[in-house]
Amino acid sequence: MRDVVDGRNRVAHKLLAHMPAIAILVVFLFVGTLYVAYTPIWQAPDEPAHYNYIRALGEGRGLPVMAPGDYDQAYLERLTAERFPPDLSIAPLEYEDHQPPLYYLLATPVYWLFQGSVRALRLFSLLLGGAAVALVFLILREFIPDRPGVAWLGGGLVAFIPQFVAMMASINNDALLLALLWLWLWLALRYLRGKVSPWVLGGVAGALLLTKTTGYGVLPLTAVVLYLRYRRAGMPGRWIASQALALFLPAVALGAVWWTRNLAVYGWPDLMGLQQHNALVTGQPRTFDRIAQQGAIAFLIDAVRTTFRSFWGQFGWMGVVVDVRIYLGLAVFSFLTFYGACWRLIESLRQGMRPRQRDALILLGTAALITFALFVGYNITFVQHQGRYLFPALPLLALGAAFGWARLVERRLAVGTGLALGFAVIVMGAVGLIIGDLAVWPMALIGAAAVGLPLLAFVPQRAQGLLAGALLVGLVALDLWCLFGFIVPLLAASA
């Protein structure tokens, strides 16, 4: 009897320890469902084209083929300008037909069951987004298992980025991409400790190759994780060969199914259908044309501003921006987060990290670098300054944010940073008086940080969790403000 009671107590204790993460997931799904319900139909990037892919499968027409006429820039601009009126069909929008099929195949039963309901398909994506958030928790717990607060704070910061919520609540293969990529990263961290079979890791990599072309970054990541495991274990060459076979064979075998189909449809060497896609999306803004119009400096400034805004929240088809004061507040928050993360990283490098943490940081850092390289590479050809393309790097950013804020509210750094920010406000005020243009709102935000940080540093340690919870509550409030203060009135009013 005592063993039964002890067992129940252990289960209750584990459940209580996971309550913050469970609460975050529940709130994420609730807020995401509001986005599903209230975001006007088709008012998410490329949603009609993704829907048409699913519809082709649902109607038994087989895998679609990227063909002339699938992309009409003038018609697309008319649809977005007129807020997708019912009398204008979205059927011609088929420019996602080159995408790998896994997300669409998984969504097809939902299409059948709910008779093509857009919101049902959005909910399917939202559930995948919830799985992605859960995997961020697991990745961070794998990095530092003895500090669960880091995991749930980092996961919560990811879950409540307004743009992340909006994208996970739309019909888009990004949700499956993130869920599979972060599943692979979590399994890879466990593989480094000998807890996961390489065949399992290779199978997940193959699923990524069948989900989205940006998932191909998993191939160099696989080489990195193999090297890290070899360096840690010091195994002979034959072991490396057997591990490489198990890691790469399932991935390449699954990818080859799709590549063979594309070669049969589009011809050599268009393995991924991208050459066909790029040839047909005429009229889409090109980077070098935009630089010629704006100039290189103006182009770069606009690229950075748009990327930052759309990372946090620029909705619809990039046409709905929120109040500039919100972006300024997020800029201050982002700067402080980066500042605190840099302090923590420098200290960790000086003090040394455990092998488990060092290898995890290398793997997550490499994944982030690949994500950034793909983003830059895409923007070399097309003007696509969409911050959502950086979302695959969110586990590393979540880790840095959680540790950064933990470091930032330590007393000495908090007081010193507060004094520096206060001095910055004085300088800004003096310059503003000289030039006759006071930057009142930036000064107010920086001043609030100058006062707030030292105050946070004197909050008792046992109340630090409440502060982290308050931060997440603030982000949830921002999510709701973005939905009901900007998305609904600005997109629905003209519908």
Alpha carbon gyration radius: 24 Å
Q: Quote the average pLDDT.
A: 92
The helical percent reads over 70%
Sheet with most strands: strand arrangement: 1-2
**Biggest β-sheet strands, sense, barrel:** 2 strands, antiparallel
User: Given the helix and strand composition, which structural class is it?
Assistant: mainly alpha
Q: What is the CA-CA span between the terminal residues?
A: 65 Å
Which parts are unreliable, with pLDDT below 50 for 5 consecutive residues or more?
none
**Number of alpha- plus pi-helical segments:** 21
Percentage of residues in strands: under 5%
| Elements, N to C (H/E) | HHHHHHHHHHHHHHHEEHHHHHH
Number of strands: 2
Envelope shape? globular
Question: What's the arrangement of secondary structure elements?
Answer:
Blueprint lengths: L1 H16 L1 H20 L8 H12 L14 H9 L20 H12 L4 H26 L4 H12 L2 H7 L5 H18 L6 H12 L8 H16 L3 H30 L7 H7 L6 H8 L1 H17 L1 E2 L4 E2 L2 H28 L3 H27 L12 H15 L2 H25 L4 H18 L6 H29 L3
Antiparallel strand pairs: 1-2
Describe this protein's structure.
This protein has a two-stranded antiparallel ribbon. With 495 residues, the protein is mostly helical. Strand 1 (314-315) and strand 2 (320-321) form a beta hairpin. The chain has helices spanning 2-17, 19-38, 47-58, 73-81, 102-113, 118-143, 148-159, 162-168, 174-191, 198-209, 218-233, 237-266, 274-280, 287-294, 296-312, 324-351, 355-381, 394-408, 411-435, 440-457, 464-492; strands at residues 314-315, 320-321. Helix 2 (19-38) runs antiparallel to helix 6. The radius of gyration is 24 Å and the shape is globular. The mean pLDDT is 92.
